[in-house]
Amino acid sequence: MNSNVRPESLERITTKELADKFIDEQVAQIREQVKDKKVLLALSGGVDSSVVAALLIKAIGKQLVCVHVNHGLMRKGESEQVIEVFGKALDANLVYVDATDRFLDLLAGVSEPEKKRKIIGNEFIKVFDEESAKLSGISFLAQGTIYPDILESDGVKAHHNVGGLPEDMEMELVEPVKFLYKDEVRVVGDALGLPHNMVYRQPFPGPGLGVRCLGAITRDRLNALREADAILREEFENNGLAGKVWQYFIAVPDMKSVGVRDGKRYEAWPAIIRAVNTTDAMSATVEEIPYALLHRITDRITHEVEGINRVLYDLTPKPIGTIEWE
Ligand code: XMP
Fold it and tell me: What is the pTM of this model?
């Protein structure tokens, strides 16, 4: 039997009962596979790795070592939530690495998008390698592979797979959700008691805010982007759009325009809002955000975020515009 084909006996997981059944089966299987050995997991805080972490914590507790690498390109509050949920609430064995300076120093002055992606991907592997070398007695590597990753393992995913791990790591894999579709992973995450905003979060690219801080990344512009993005997310949540719109974010280009603040000339960057709907990310339509909300978001971002003096709304569908700007 090809172990990369979803077993026919696996019923589509749509309810808490089915999720609980899946969890019980996986817990037993993981214990059987791992025995008293240790397992390593790169925990990004995204849906898939979070669900795998919660499953493994349930199955083997402290035999799981989670490594969270903060590359400095996370959204506001994300790394903090990983520490809160896994380090504190679930009392996991969590290694938190703040590698912000390493990533941002390497990225300084680099404006070419694919070069930026490569630097971020390679450095991620390096940091993860260094951290795992410090640990002893690790026999397994857990991964949040899901079924679409197996089905779509073509060039597209390879290019997107920042956070992919070194292939020469000689460890047996533990991939408990590899036959699940995204919606099923979410039902399982809910059943495991993970926070709603972690389980239902929108897709977030591996290189994170790095591909939204357009051109050569600087700390001040990255910071402005992170704050503006947090305001956009807060307003979408407060106005019922968070669960409805597939992906929404801010991009900040490397250009300034003239504005006025406190009666003085104020040169600053524009924040570009992107909010799209899609089913497969191959094509996408633009969400019709109510004008009143757009005005409110503009007002908040231009008043609350240092370095932003205009807010623009990207009305371009995909094709012709890709979802991300880089
Ligand atoms: P585009 O911009 O190609 O994006 O229309 C389609 C989807 O893929 C995400 N994306 C990425 N995901 N690493 C990732 O993990 C990347 O480098 C990357 N680039 C784009 C994008 O956010 C959208 O959901």
Answer: 0.92
